[in-house]
Design brief:
The chain is α+β, with helices and mostly antiparallel strands. The chain is 17% helix and 31% strand. The strands form 3 sheets. The chain has a 5-stranded antiparallel sheet. It has a 3-stranded antiparallel sheet with strand order 1-2-3, with helices on one face. A 3-stranded antiparallel sheet has the order 4-8-7. β9 and β10 form a beta hairpin. The protein is elongated.
Length: 220
């Protein structure tokens, strides 16, 4: 794949595979009418806007910026439109925790979970601040730059179920990609396509619809 280096090139899309799976996938959109190309990106550990990972115990469905809604499944295998299956989500989080050397909660000690759904507007200047992970049953967000967290309320371990650009205000979009349960390659492809569309049409952001698995804490 030919690489075109440009000083003022648009941001980078970074996508990571789990260890032992297919090679690291990193794509870069150079200009609106060119396809994404392969590249390797290294971020400085001293960056004030470094990538962060949200501890699972600190995850929440509420945030001041994106619009949010909450749905709680009565069965791990039930899910309404555009919500992932709870069982698949739990399995995906267990996979990424295992890769990170974290303790996995035993089956008989798991809390009840709710599936949260939110929509976030991601400015184009921040699209490089998202990393994906292939987690067996789902593609999860593995890391986010702090600027993305502050702007959108997104968290690591969220999963993207739809990517859109060019909303007309009445439910229609110039571009819309379904990523519910999609592979990491398909998720990255839809992410890049939305960025392309936004750039071609002089838009400022893309829209991400996300699911979030939230442990339900008992009330006293």
């Amino acid at each position: 794949i030919a690489m075109h280096l440009q000083r003022h090139a648009p941001p980078l899309l970074v996508s990571y595979q789990r260890p032992g799976s297919t090679p690291l996938l990193v794509m870069r959109q150079i200009i609106a009418n060119l396809a994404a190309v392969a590249a390797v990106v290294i971020f400085s550990c001293g960056d004030s806007d470094a990538f962060t990972t949200t501890p699972f115990s600190a995850r929440s469905h509420a945030h001041s910026r994106p619009s949010t809604s909450m749905w709680m499944s009565s069965s791990p295998d039930e899910a309404p439109a555009n919500l992932v299956r709870q069982a698949a989500y739990v399995t995906a989080i267990d996979a990424i925790k295992k890769d990170m050397g974290m303790e996995i909660i035993p089956e008989d000690q798991r809390p009840m979970y709710a599936i949260g759904k939110l929509v976030a507007q991601l400015p184009l200047e921040l699209v490089s601040g998202v990393r994906f992970a292939d987690c067996d049953t789902l593609t999860l967000i593995s890391q986010l730059k702090q600027s993305v967290v502050d702007e959108t309320g997104m968290q690591s371990l969220d999963t993207i179920v739809a990517i859109r650009a060019g909303g007309d205000g009445s439910g229609g979009y110039g571009y819309e990609g379904d990523t519910n349960g999609a592979s990491i390659a398909d998720t990255a492809e839809a992410y890049t396509a939305a960025i392309n569309y936004a750039m071609q049409n002089n838009l400022k952001d893309i829209e991400l619809e996300l699911n979030r698995l939230v442990p339900m804490m008992p009330t006293e």
